[in-house]
DNA sequence: GAGTGGTCTAGACCACTTG
DNA sequence: AAGTGGTCTAGACCACTCC
């Protein structure tokens, strides 16, 4: 949807880059040209270009122009340093999801969850445990916590489809930001069972707290990945604020 | 330095938040008020607020205002989910750095480096190996590669101080962005020796390619962390571009 | 209805790069 | 000197929230 102009321009140019109509090291048309071709003001063009820059598509250079730094031919390369944030999702392996448990508990059972979601001991929370399998092997075990109050209709059906789609499309909530933390841990006995594994008994643990656009914490997630299968990719820009 | 107004406003407000003059869940003065107090236009105020939002300080809400989501009292908490990007550096443990090797090689010796930095086989590159120690224990082993041409004056002295400061202050170059990749790997025999470890024989491997603001790749870095000591923290926003 | 943030405009001046 | 991006302005209209 997103009716605003700078998002449309962003989409159009980012598609052009991803589909190879602009290649790495190409220079985009100047802001002045883009103003003409899209028939918008310069600040609007600049908002689109800033989005492209934040998301790792281009690098703007004073006096020179906007240079494409994203290499679409690398899109499906696994081998080396992969590039780009939005694409990550697409590249992900296909997993089948199996909901192992979906139960309500009083929040006091899980002090970390209580703290992260700002709950009282007696508030009720869902605990959802899911296995993510790839070619018969469990690669990921997800443990999610939601407050029952905010998410009364949670079901294993939803849990095995897309929870986020349900949240945004059905509940009309908007997910805004999250804090993530990645660590390396030995498997617990329970995990040793959930991963019907043969390899080394270590996992990459990703803990995150997900917030809505009204800043309410909505979800506490602990995602355990088979350490040998885990890869995290990030594009980041250096902050020059001084 | 940065003489522009929105950066000054960003700095001022972010300091106010970090030093507790605004607390979590406080609402900042409205854009209209900020226009008056800083005597700038509204778009300028908005640029500062957008920066604060991208960096995890505030959440803007239509019709309501800008709410502080950053909790300064968590600044030095190690226990739980830590927050914020810029702060990460400050929180880092104190390490002593020991340069173990600094040598020039033809780029063809390191095909990955050659590819990432876009070099020819005969181009010369520095290989720099550094140990980062904390309380006598080696926690990190860094392997860095720079082209000799771009960084002729590299020395172990610089390598044990701050390379980035040298690059930006002395060479007048500006670091702009990087691609990172995190994986967990079994220690090689060499690493087993370098880390006089007791825990699990695994390392967190962070591979990155660092680019300058003219988009030239400048540095290839492989940073191996004692897996049991490794923690990566990220604040991220969900993209709603449709 | 009053106040908030979101988008967009037309124009200005500046700093940097390239010929 | 011409062309590029970086910053800033003053004003407009809209959508949302809260009373």
From TrEMBL, chains A, B:
**Where is the HTH gntR-type domain positioned along the sequence?**
3-71
Gene Ontology MF terms in the entry: DNA binding; DNA-binding transcription factor activity
Tell me a GO biological process for this protein: negative regulation of DNA-templated transcription
Keyword hit for Protease: no
Q: Which UniProt keywords apply?
A: DNA-binding, Transcription, Transcription regulation
Check the record and name the Pfam families matching this protein.
GntR, UTRA
- The lineage's top-level taxon is Bacteria
Q: What is this protein called?
A: Trehalose operon repressor
> Can you name the source organism?
Salinicoccus sediminis
């Amino acid at each position: 949807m997103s009716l605003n102009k700078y998002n449309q321009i962003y989409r159009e140019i980012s598609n052009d880059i991803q589909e190879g109509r602009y290649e790495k090291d190409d220079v985009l048309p100047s802001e002045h040209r883009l103003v003409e071709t899209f028939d918008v003001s310069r600040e609007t063009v600049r908002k689109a270009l800033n989005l492209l820059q934040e998301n790792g598509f281009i690098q703007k250079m004073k006096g020179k122009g906007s240079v494409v730094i994203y290499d679409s031919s690398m899109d499906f390369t696994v081998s080396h340093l992969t590039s780009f944030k939005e694409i990550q999702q697409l590249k992900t392996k296909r997993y089948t999801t199996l909901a192992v448990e979906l139960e309500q508990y009083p929040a006091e059972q899980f002090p970390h969850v209580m703290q992260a979601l700002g709950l009282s001991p007696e508030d009720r929370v869902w605990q959802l445990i899911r296995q993510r399998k790839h070619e018969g092997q469990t690669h990921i075990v997800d443990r999610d916590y939601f407050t029952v109050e905010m998410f009364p209709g949670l079901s294993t059906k939803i849990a095995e489809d897309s929870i986020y789609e349900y949240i945004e499309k059905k509940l009309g909530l908007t997910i805004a930001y999250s804090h993530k933390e990645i660590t390396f841990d030995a498997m617990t006995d329970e995990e040793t069972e959930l991963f019907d594994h043969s390899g080394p008994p270590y996992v990459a643990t990703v803990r995150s707290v997900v917030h809505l656009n009204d800043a309410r914490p909505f979800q506490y997630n602990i995602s355990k990945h088979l350490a040998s299968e885990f890869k995290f990719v990030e594009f980041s820009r250096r902050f020059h604020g001084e």
